[in-house]
Amino acid sequence: MKKINFAIIFLILNIFLNINYLHSKNTNELYEKIDLFGEVLETIKQEYVDEVDQVDIMDSAINGLLQSLDPYSAYMSPKSFKGMQTDTKGEFGGLGIEIGMESGVIKVISPIDDTPAANVGIKAGDYIVRINDEQVQGKSLTEAVELMRGPVGSEIKLTIRRKNKKKALEFRVTRAIIEVKSVVAKIIGDKKEIGYLRLKSFNENSDEQLFKNINDFEKNNKLIGYILDLRNNPGGLLNQAISVSDFFLDDGEIVSTKGRNISESRRFFSKKGDGINGKPLIVIINTGSASAAEIVSGALKDHKRAIILGERSYGKGSVQSIIPLKNGGGLRLTISKYYLPSGKSISEVGVLPDILVEEFGDDFKINSNTDNQLKYAVNLFKS
């Protein structure tokens, strides 16, 4: 018995010493890296060909650290952080695009319908390489946003690289106050028997607007099914995505979030009752469908409640939190990720359509006579 006890004590001590050794080793390596950073900074100060502002260099280093984590985490200087807060007061005009970082270049996640960017022809998946002739590569997402901000009515020139286009495209966009009407609803089809619901974003009360339109349709029309159009929907509030998914689902899990903190790991389920009583539902998505739009389309696909049509969605399956810093700046930091009912992550993968239908033609426009994806969806109801 004593031999067994000594063996257990020896094993525990051995584990404890190994943990201490690894902790000490990691701590020493961290301090060595900090010393190395200081050495590099001092060498730049003494030897670099041009005189540099060390404060700017430190900001760039912080941004580099955050950009190495994922495309959505970023540092906001006190000026940028204050600018983000004043944007909501109508002092500055916007373009109407959701953007992200990819390989050091600004990528358009989604242009919002009926905004300056969408009206001049900017598309989801476009890469912004210059802003007013200033090179974008090497700048942080926050710095690029700063360059795009400006007074209402002022003009900005964007140089774009687009897939399958050899030459760069130039767009002149006039800044405006962005007001998004979340829902567009109408009856379509040869026999006027299909409910078309275009959900542009998941803002506060988007679900109430959507449900009101559906209830009006159900009272006054004999519809055979619905088309839910989530193209170029950049996302929005998680609770809105859950509410919209719940409306069409009878039961089951909608989405789960997983983070390092227990408070960031949650699961969300639908309640009993299908708002359209099991009628056929087609959801249209494209590369501009992101975040909350991917939660809805992914949940409806996993539960086989809807046919998903269009193109692979963007793949933004993460939650960011804005964290104020002591210097008056802030961090936008990813704190958790979304997972579909199947257990698959949305991040970088996106939602794959059941039926792949790509945009066709240079004159393609959503919800118009040139919208081949919508025409395909309508024809599915005929078969």
Provide a compact summary of the structure.
The protein has 383 residues and is an alpha+beta fold.
Commentary on this structure:
The protein has 9 helices and 17 strands. It has 383 residues and is α+β, with helices and mostly antiparallel strands. The strands form 3 sheets. Strands 2, 3, 4, 5, 6 and 7 form a 6-stranded antiparallel beta sheet that branches. Strands 8-9-10-13-14-17 form a 6-stranded mixed beta sheet, sandwiched between helices. A hairpin with a 5-residue loop joins strand 8 and strand 9. The protein starts with a helix and ends with a helix.
Descriptive keywords:
single chain; 383 residues; alpha+beta; Pdz3 Domain; 2-enoyl-CoA Hydratase, Chain A, domain 1; six-stranded antiparallel beta sheet; six-stranded mixed beta sheet; 9 helices; globular
Give the topology:
Blueprint: H1 2-47, H2 54-67, E1 74-76, H3 78-86, E2 97-102, E3 105-111, H4 116-120, E4 127-131, E5 134-135, H5 141-148, E6 155-161, E7 169-174, E8 183-188, E9 194-199, H6 206-220, E10 225-229, H7 238-248, E11 253-259, E12 266-269, E13 281-285, H8 292-302, E14 307-310, E15 318-324, E16 330-339, E17 355-356, H9 372-382
Parallel strand pairs: 9-10, 10-13, 13-14, 14-17
Antiparallel strand pairs: 1-16, 2-3, 3-4, 4-5, 4-6, 6-7, 8-9, 11-12, 11-16, 15-16
Helix pairs in contact: 6-7, 7-8
